[in-house]
Amino acid sequence: MAVTTDSPSTRARAAARTLATLGRGAKDAALEQIALAIERDSAAIVEANAEDLAAARASGQSSALLDRLTLDSERVLALCDAVRAVAALDDPVGQVVTGWRLPNGLDVQKVRVPLGVLLVVYEARPNVTVDVASLCLKSGNACLLRGSTSARATNAALLRCVRDGLKAAGLPEDAVVPLEASREELAAIVADPSACDVVIPRGGEALKKFLLEHARVPVLVAAGGNCHVYLHADADPAKALPIVINAKTQRPGVCNACETLLVHRDALPLLGPIGAELAEHGVELRADAEAAAALGAPSLAADEDDWATEFLDLVLAVRTVGSVEEAVEHIERYSTGHSEAIVTESIAAADAFVLGISSACVYVNASTRFTDGGEFGFGAEIGNSTARLHARGPVGLADITTTKYVVRGAGQIRA
Amino acid sequence: MAVTTDSPSTRARAAARTLATLGRGAKDAALEQIALAIERDSAAIVEANAEDLAAARASGQSSALLDRLTLDSERVLALCDAVRAVAALDDPVGQVVTGWRLPNGLDVQKVRVPLGVLLVVYEARPNVTVDVASLCLKSGNACLLRGSTSARATNAALLRCVRDGLKAAGLPEDAVVPLEASREELAAIVADPSACDVVIPRGGEALKKFLLEHARVPVLVAAGGNCHVYLHADADPAKALPIVINAKTQRPGVCNACETLLVHRDALPLLGPIGAELAEHGVELRADAEAAAALGAPSLAADEDDWATEFLDLVLAVRTVGSVEEAVEHIERYSTGHSEAIVTESIAAADAFVLGISSACVYVNASTRFTDGGEFGFGAEIGNSTARLHARGPVGLADITTTKYVVRGAGQIRA
């Protein structure tokens, strides 16, 4: 055992034992106490945040980072709403996923239980501190939270509220443990299954890569989103245009934005109005020759790299294909397995696309931008996963639990 | 991409694309063709097996290994039955796990789909070749099979039948690809997510350790089984004795056998008859002082090591505890998370045990020996898992699939 008696991991593990036995009432009461503590300390939180902001400004951080870092009093109150929204969600723990009676009379139940101790490593945005703490508490998991140094004062103020709330509700404060760990210490923790059960990175590619490289415990992580929209031969123009514009431009810097538009040769005429509107939105186009001609708007010549790139920007690759099979082929080759959409009025084409695409989320006549826990109606999400095992797509409360089999008998033995 | 164009991985991946689109009928027809091919080649398989057995005998292998290696004509026919039993199982692929309609009219479905390419590394028993191939085919997964050199000729004969059957049914032979790989090559494959999606080791601790050490793709694996039976204060003697005897002696070398017996102080009188019967079965006892006195039968003094050891033999550690909480405490400390049982007539004690134990399988008044895909009614199992993520307990067909979200709309875009 690499963990010492009073290490953050040991404290979290002890708390996890208690959390696993709690009913919904006790957890929801603690969430309410956390919301109250945040309301109470609102001014102190904003003050701590001002300290972080000043330091970030002094060190020349980007305005994007400054915005992500900022917690004004309005955002603090929104945090309280978020905590109460989590309290309002169903408790996944104790749900009987399935159950049956065996011929020998044994009653088998597959029951949802907490995972144990989650390590969440996140960057900049201090609201993650409260979101993750709430979701872990609701699902009966203890958590180790390692935020970024740029949000240190804000996170400390928020964690004080979280732990005050837990204490006020009579629950172990160590259900949520702040983790001050260097990169080296972090590497050691994620290599030690006795320290935590799952790691969830919420941040950039460098962070994910670092954790994947060092982890010996499972990492729940989304690959980037090289997402596709495919306009089939019979795409309805009234659906095609808004879906493409929305998927590309509504928020180009996120993982569920569209990066490559595939167009059936027979649907090339649709590209005229789409190209014009994309150009109006300032989207840079990189197209093959056929698509370039149809787009009207200026475009660069696309190459292999463009198919493989997640631009996360107002850039769109456009490629012509001859069939839904060719579209599927392209996507299965270049996609990161996040979200893909087909626009078609044909049941056969939709079915072929849905069957052929192996990505976590497949859309028919809808924007890829819906891949999101909030949009899916989960109420909150802890991230998004493109992994094949365990959770895929938006990761909701139930996805940060596991199951155990409970088998009740009357003395049965195996023959 | 580390895989070359015609590498086993590339071939399996191409086949996986086809397999993912197949309905149950096509897969069941191929399973029948495989059973027919094995029946047809029965004599050749037994002959190939004789070759392996001769080599094993010549190299001085143990009689246990020789038995595991042996395939006589009766066992070959049992293999055909096993293939047909898999065909008779429900197809997990395409199952809608859950689904709902969003306020904006989007229809969300969570649909079961194959994982992709499974690598199964196994030792000695050649029946695993056919079992795993059948289960993978039924679940729409392609597989890379790496058997042991001691079963090389037998495995080759069986794989010929499997691939003949696939071909006869018009399916890609590369749905099942034999993998001849050195330890170094194996390490490279499991480190490459483009080569396979999941690794399943079926063999000893050294094999698991090797794969866990080198894998960058998920490993579905069972930790050893340090399993417990706890006799509560009010255990029914008529249940306690057969459960302890069954859990310890029915097959002591397997992972779901009991290794430590915990006894409530008030239940110590039960140990007299249990100790006598264990002694009759030749079980060596290692007990604390109180338990030793109650057992009657000769015992060694138990120490810390005994609580932590998976004996896999006719050895049983026995410890006295003062409460169900103390039993839970002991188990949560020493267990490998496999299977634990309580014997009690008290609802409160049973509930406390079930809630407090985090192992994959928790039994009330039944033997731990039931942790098994066959016993659970899965029809077949691909292994057993003590992991927290994805599959826990016996790993059935549905556990070697994943899900994707299919979202159908009428042109919805995100606001």
What does the secondary structure layout of this molecule look like, with pairings?
The structure is a homodimer of 415-residue chains.
Chain A lengths: L7 H12 L4 H17 L1 H17 L4 H7 L3 H16 L7 E6 L5 E8 L2 E6 L4 H12 L3 E5 L5 H17 L7 E3 L4 H8 L7 E5 L2 H10 L12 E5 L5 H13 L8 E7 L6 H10 L3 E4 L1 H7 L4 E2 L2 H5 L6 E7 L2 H11 L4 E5 L3 H10 L4 E6 L16 E3 L7 E3 L5 E12 L3
Parallel strand pairs in A: 3-4, 3-6, 4-5, 7-8, 7-12, 8-11, 9-10, 9-11, 12-13
Antiparallel strand pairs in A: 1-2, 2-16, 14-15
Helix pairs in contact in A: 2-5, 2-7, 3-7, 5-6, 6-7, 10-11, 14-15
Description of the molecule:
2 copies of one chain form a homodimer. Chain A has 415 residues and is α/β, with parallel strands linked by helices. The first copy, chain A, folds into 2 domains: 8-222 and 396-407, 3-Layer(aba) Sandwich (Aldehyde Dehydrogenase, Chain A, domain 1); 227-370, Aldehyde Dehydrogenase, Chain A, domain 2 (3-Layer(aba) Sandwich), CATH 3.40.309.10. The first copy, chain A, has 15 helices and 16 strands. Chain A has helices at residues 8-19, 24-40, 42-58, 63-69, 73-88, 127-138, 152-168, 183-190, 205-214, 237-249, 271-280, 289-295, 304-308, 324-334, 347-356, and strands spanning 96-101, 107-114, 117-122, 142-146, 176-178, 198-202, 227-231, 258-264, 284-287, 300-301, 315-321, 339-343, 361-366, 383-385, 393-395, 401-412. Chain A has a 7-stranded parallel sheet with strand order 10-9-11-8-7-12-13, with helices on both faces. In chain A, strands 5-4-3-6 form a 4-stranded parallel sheet, with helices on both faces. In chain A, helix 3 (42-58) runs antiparallel to helix 7 (152-168), helix 10 (237-249) runs parallel beside helix 11 and helix 14 (324-334) runs parallel beside helix 15 (347-356). Chain A is globular, with a radius of gyration of 24 Å. The mean pLDDT of chain A is 94. Chains A and B meet through helix 10, helix 15, strand 13 and strand 16 of A and helix 10, helix 15, strand 13 and strand 16 of B. Strand 13 (361-366) of chain A pairs parallel with strand 16 of chain B, so a sheet runs across the interface.
